[in-house]
Design a protein that fits this description.
The protein has three helices and 23 strands. By secondary structure, it is of the alpha/beta class.
Length: 203
């Protein structure tokens, strides 16, 4: 199996490791962390270096996954994604064997689909997204690049979620809504109306 390096070694990275191990398509080589970190290993996998080592590590590793979580800001994930693309890293789609992805769905590079998630027919998920545990992206829905659909969120049919948006745990959307780019929908919200870009709705 090809080796893959993960960027980030926190809570989301731990969950990503579990998905990768179960999928059986890659071996986790280790983690890349911030320069000021004191973390030496996570789940038995070593910290291989920092963001400053990206170019030198490319000579040894070709596959990478961004395993930094996203709640308040997506800026770090976007910056890393762009840097990895420029260095010609391969950013595979990672899908848990405990998830369901329709053969008629589309998923972009660098996206992870976690345990219990469902992506139904004609759904389109962009690049560098997190479709977290037990999230539902229903038929004909569209999730923009760099977005995070958090645990247990329900994106109903024909809903459009713009780039770099965060949909919190347990959110339920009415069908056919439009959610703009750079939006945040707090945990547990029942969303019944469209959202313009850059809006925040808290429960």
């Amino acid at each position: 199996m090809d080796e893959i390096i993960l960027f980030g070694a926190g809570g989301h990275a731990v969950a990503c490791v579990d998905v990768i191990e179960l999928s059986g398509k890659f071996t986790v080589a280790g983690f890349i962390e911030k320069s000021e970190t004191n973390i030496q290993s996570t789940l038995g996998y070593p910290v291989l270096g920092t963001d400053d080592d990206l170019q030198s590590l490319r000579g040894k590793y070709s596959h990478a996954l961004i395993a930094v979580g996203q709640i308040q800001s997506v800026a770090i994930r976007v910056r890393l994604f762009q840097a990895l693309q420029q260095m010609d890293y391969m950013l595979p789609v990672i899908v848990s064997p405990k998830a369901y992805v329709s053969k008629h769905a589309q998923i972009g590079a660098g996206t992870i689909v976690m345990h219990g998630a469902i992506i139904n027919a004609n759904a389109r998920v962009g690049t560098n997204c997190i479709i977290n545990n037990r999230a539902l992206v229903d038929h004909d829905a569209e999730i923009g690049d760099h977005s995070h659909i958090a645990t247990g969120a329900i994106i109903n049919g024909e809903v459009s979620v713009g780039h770099a948006s965060f949909i919190g745990s347990g959110v339920v959307t009415k069908q056919c809504l439009s959610i703009g780019s750079n939006c945040i929908v707090g945990a547990g919200v029942v969303l019944k109306n469209d959202m313009a870009p850059n809006q925040v709705i808290k429960n």
